[in-house]
Give the backbone structure.
Amino acid sequence: MSLLHALLAIVLRDAKLGWVGGGGAALPAAFFAGASALAPFALGPDPQLLTKIGPGFLWLALALSALVSLERLFQGDLEDGTLDQLALSGIPLTLVVAAKVLGQWLAAGAPLVIISPILALLLQIPPHAIPALMLNLALGGLGLFFIGSIPAALAAGVRRGGLLAALLALPLYAPPVIFGAAAASASASLGDFGGQPFLLLCAFTLAALATAPPAAAAGLRLHLS
């Protein structure tokens, strides 16, 4: 089996496992939908207020939903020995981490982007801004899942380490939430797509794609050694 086929198999495996064993991937989607749907009741019916606050609220809900799935990223594979087998398979552990994070994003992150248009309408976000918002959430969400793999790897050997991983991830999530919320608000209110906040969000995601897999792989080696 070639390296590409092996990595694709890991991506598909993790995407499939996200929807079995208790439907773990459904929990972030349910949290994202529930939190966003309750926002109009908490903020009131003022359309202008919802339009102004809605994009930032969606980003906050996205970040919190991403935290929910961190515990499932490496914990199970470390406990049942799958990570040991992958480490001995000859595939670079950095690429294994990248494949697992991508599979987790397909299972738990992509559904958040898919249901975001409905939630955007509930928050009075203009329909013309929804495609830009979906791209914003997709790119930023991918960065959140990759950067979250670092604390997930560090906490993988801790029993019920989901809380520890979430606490470690919160400071790392602050920059993309700020950039993403600013970019989404500018797109919804001013029609300004592709401005400086969006470029900063893209830069963060690219940095996460480049740095998170080797950092997470180094964290996992602490548990495998």
